[in-house]
Write a structure and sequence with these properties.
This protein has 416 residues and is α+β, with helices and mostly antiparallel strands. 49% of the residues lie in helices and 14% in strands. The structure holds protoporphyrin IX containing FE. The site of protoporphyrin IX containing FE has 26 residues, from helix 13, helix 14 and helix 18.
Length: 416
């Protein structure tokens, strides 16, 4: 179990605080002094990720006292060995967040995890989601029509945020308070997962507190009786899960569902805008749409990393890792690993990159991915029918601890 040295803003292992610290730390190689949360890395991360991949299958980050796992094969091996690389001690880089969310699906161990996941995914199965399709399409058609009439629009604020926000808060059955703040709360919950003492982490934790207060005090009567939220409490009535577990699951339906899908949508739009030949290829071959989306998720993974803790010593592709060490799964680096994807920095919708790890891998692989992909696919299907070409005229990124996406992407549209 790790603990946090909040003052220094770095992770330490209990054994490191003892006399043998130096011996233990020195035995961890290869090393790097890179700060993967610095503005410099966050602004243009990919050359840094390549450096890490070239250093080894796992690299000890001296500044934070944690491993980073940057290669495709080593991440998959670690995540398949879920009993060794456990999420039970939290997937964030600070103890405050790890303790606050201790109870969500991601942090639960077996067999509880499978039991909880069965209840969680009930409304998210592809066959159940089919019933949503018509409604999503109607909403998307109306919105796209309005925006094309304007000629220029912000693909993030006007389009990417619209479906995930309305769909998730409505399906969950949240009241006005939840709908109003959920987007800000979602972003705070991700930023609050960064290393101790970093300004983005501190600000994120403040915002996350508001979300925790709201969700832990929400009354059953405030939830739409037809929504997913009410269904959780009904499942608790039936003894499938505890009332406390039902409350944590409200967080599972909201926190990971918004920015991830929003960033996935806007990054797909961005990649197609930066590669107009790929938009044209997609128009000629609309059946490639799912591949175009997966390829964008591969290249611009919306969640760039998450962490695990080792339950025993482990040899990861020749790197010796110790029990109690924390290891960052840098999925955004693995998804551009030249050892697995030839020419990894080029966006190619004819590539089949569905084996990317942007949704994670193994037992905790994203439980909401069918919904996320459905939302993104629905809007692009409508766009493909109505948009001949488009041009990016303004773009802005907001640096975030664990997420990557655009804050603004202004498009000039040339409708059909
Ligand atoms: C493009 C959209 C999305 C992306 C890129 C994404 C990414 C991820 C990733 C990387 C993980 C694994 C985290 C880890 O192993 O530590 C994950 C897990 C999870 N995601 Fe998603 N996600 C997306 C959409 C959604 C949506 C829409 C929901 C909810 C409706 C959701 C709910 C979850 C949950 C509950 C888990 C934990 C699953 C478990 O522990 O078994 N995600 N997601």
């Amino acid at each position: 179990m790790t603990q946090t040295d909040a003052g220094q803003g770095r992770y330490i292992d209990r054994r490191e605080s003892m006399a043998e610290t130096d011996v233990l730390v020195e035995s961890r190689t290869p090393t790097s002094d890179m700060d993967i949360w610095s503005d410099e890395v966050l602004t243009n991360p990919y050359p840094y990720y390549r450096q890490l991949r070239d250093l080894g299958p796992a690299v000890w980050l001296t500044k934070h006292g944690v491993w980073v796992v940057p290669r495709y094969s080593s991440i998959r091996e670690a995540l398949l060995n879920w009993e060794v690389f456990t999420s039970k001690n939290g997937t964030a880089m600070n103890a405050v967040m790890n303790q606050a969310v201790d109870g969500i699906l991601l942090l639960s161990g077996e067999p509880e995890h499978q039991r909880l996941r069965r209840t969680f995914v009930k409304p998210l199965q592809p066959q159940t989601l089919k019933k949503l399709q018509d409604r999503l399409t109607a909403l998307a058609e109306q919105r796209v029509e309005e925006l094309l009439g304007k000629g220029e629009f912000d693909a993030v604020a006007d389009l990417a945020q619209f479906l995930p926000l309305s769909v998730v808060t409505e399906l969950l059955g949240l009241g006005e308070e939840g709908k109003k703040h959920m987007l800000r709360w979602g972003a705070g919950l991700f930023d609050g997962q960064g290393p101790d003492g970093y300004p983005r982490t501190i600000a994120g934790l403040e915002v996350a507190k508001e979300a925790f207060t709201y969700l832990s005090n929400i009354k059953r009567s405030e939830l739409d009786p037809e929504g997913w939220g009410a269904a959780l409490f009904n499942a608790a009535d039936a003894g499938e899960l505890s009332y406390q577990e039902a409350r944590y699951m409200l967080l599972d339906y909201t926190a990971p569902a918004l920015d991830t899908t929003i960033n996935g949508f806007s990054s797909t739009f961005y990649m197609l805008g930066r590669n107009p030949d790929q938009w044209e290829t997609l128009r000629q071959n609309p059946e490639r749409l799912p591949f175009a989306i997966d390829e964008a998720l591969r290249m611009e993974s919306p969640i760039r990393l998450f962490t695990r803790t080792l339950t025993r010593d482990f040899d990861l592709e020749g790197v010796e890792m110790k029990e109690g060490d924390r290891a960052i799964m840098l999925s955004a680096a693995a998804n551009r690993d030249e050892r697995h994807y030839p020419d990894p920095d080029s966006y190619d919708i004819m590539r089949d990159s569905r084996d990317h790890v942007a949704f994670g891998y193994g037992i905790h692989m994203c439980a909401g991915r069918h919904l996320g992909k459905l939302e993104i696919t629905t809007v692009f299907k409508v766009l493909l029918k109505r948009l001949k070409s488009f041009e990016i005229i303004e773009e802005r990124r907001e640096l975030q601890n664990n997420l990557r996406g655009l804050a603004k992407l202004v498009i000039r549209a040339n409708p059909l």
